[in-house]
């Protein structure tokens, strides 16, 4: 992991390279702008690293705010590593808009370079503990195996546990989300709360635009409420409530609409499922007559296809909205949320 000194050195070098535009994302720039061209003469610059926050920022900021997206289109956001230029963009931005625990590289850069400019979603809404609403399904059988061998060489076992604990802590610096699930944006009410917080922050920084930011946030909240109503109605009467997903990113959605989530992987999509976990999911699919294994645009389909072939289920896409790709069921946040609803209604046989 980079030290603070390295980060500061990289940031200083990057600032010298930045163009005169506030967004820093023109031709040849390091940041990908997936939501359209930047305003010609922005009042503020906001930097973020995940698509749902980019969508919120563009909708609320309008023509007054240039939004820099750090994650290239089609890239898994959990795997983001920042370039020197991107660290400079974080340093120079008026707002660093992020979810702590989602992208460790962003967390570190914000802490070192832009803590006074941070708007952390974890400070705005109550995030789920990583383990709520089915997140621990994948661990249950493995825990049983651990019990079977708990007394085989106690000293050796304690050493292995200590090493495993160290390994787990090291992984936390790379891809693990830590104690909380960051995928709050799948709950439209939480998105509305964050929209209000963002409009308030932008209004504080740029009072002349405060009324516009507030009006934009109200429009976003109204659209989110409409989407929430569609989910309530669309998932009210279904033959099934069990959802098998690529990784357990959907707890906010499944909890809100009284569904049960079973994940091929955990909250971290890089976690490879064990053979025991794959077998357990196949048993779950057959036991509950699940007809669809959901995969994601930014995840390989191989494991889902293996389970589907064994159980007779189909493989379809349920998008956790970590990015927009050609395989997403829409081209922006509202259309992808609605595409997800249709996929769920079909899989759960809803009337």
How would you briefly describe this protein structure?
The chain is an alpha/beta fold and 351 residues long. Helix content is 46%, strand content 12%. The longest helix has 25 residues, at 210-234.
Mean pLDDT over the residues: 81
Q: Determine the fraction of residues in helical runs and give it as a percent range.
A: 40-55%
Overall shape: globular
Beta-strand share of residues: 5-15%
CATH class of the largest domain equals: Alpha Beta
The total of beta strands comes to: 10
Structural class, judged by helices and strands?
A: alpha/beta
Textual characterization of the structure:
- The termini are far apart.
- The radius of gyration is 21 Å and the shape is globular.
- The model is unreliable at 1-34 and 133-177 (pLDDT under 50).
- With 351 residues, it is an alpha/beta fold.
- The chain folds into three domains: 4-127 and 178-226, Nitrogenase molybdenum iron protein domain (Rossmann fold), CATH 3.40.50; 140-172, no CATH class; 235-348, 3-Layer(aba) Sandwich (Rossmann fold), CATH 3.40.50.1980.
- The strands form four sheets. Strands 2-1-3-4 form a four-stranded parallel sheet, with helices on both faces. The protein has a two-stranded antiparallel sheet with strand order 5-6. The protein has a two-stranded parallel sheet with strand order 7-8.
- The longest helix is centred in the middle third of the chain and has 25 residues, at 210-234.
- It is built from twelve helices and ten strands.
């Amino acid at each position: 992991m980079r030290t603070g000194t390295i980060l500061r050195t990289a940031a200083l070098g990057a600032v010298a390279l930045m163009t005169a535009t506030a967004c820093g994302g023109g031709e040849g720039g390091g940041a990908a702008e997936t939501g359209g061209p930047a305003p010609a003469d922005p009042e503020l610059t906001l930097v973020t690293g995940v698509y749902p926050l980019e969508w919120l920022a563009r909708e609320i900021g309008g023509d007054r705010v240039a939004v820099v997206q750090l994650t290239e289109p089609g890239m898994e956001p959990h795997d983001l590593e920042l370039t020197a230029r991107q660290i400079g963009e974080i340093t120079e931005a008026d707002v660093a808009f992020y979810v702590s625990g989602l992208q460790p590289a962003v967390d570190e850069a914000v802490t070192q370079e832009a803590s006074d400019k941070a708007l952390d979603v974890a400070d705005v809404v109550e995030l789920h503990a990583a383990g709520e609403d089915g997140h621990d399904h994948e661990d249950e059988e493995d825990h049983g195996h651990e019990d079977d061998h708990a007394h085989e060489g106690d000293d050796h076992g304690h050493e292995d546990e200590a090493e495993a604990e160290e390994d787990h802590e090291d992984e936390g610096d790379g891809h693990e989300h830590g104690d909380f699930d960051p995928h709050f944006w799948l709950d439209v009410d939480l998105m509305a709360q964050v929209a209000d917080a963002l409009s308030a922050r932008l209004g504080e920084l740029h009072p002349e635009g405060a009324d516009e930011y507030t009006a934009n946030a109200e429009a976003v909240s109204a659209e989110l409420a409409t989407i929430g109503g569609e989910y309530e109605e669309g998932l009210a009467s279904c033959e099934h409530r069990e959802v098998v997903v690529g990784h357990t990113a959907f707890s906010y959605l499944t909890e809100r609409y009284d569904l049960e989530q079973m994940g091929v992987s955990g909250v971290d999509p890089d976690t490879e499922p064990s053979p025991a976990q794959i077998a357990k999911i196949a048993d779950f699919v057959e036991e509950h007559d699940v007809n669809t294994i959901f995969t994601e645009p930014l995840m390989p389909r191989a494991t889902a296809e293996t389970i589907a072939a064994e159980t007779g289920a189909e493989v379809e896409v349920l998008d956790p909205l970590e990015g927009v790709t050609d395989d997403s069921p829409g081209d922006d946040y509202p259309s992808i949320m609605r595409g997800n609803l249709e996929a769920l209604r079909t899989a759960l046989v809803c009337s």
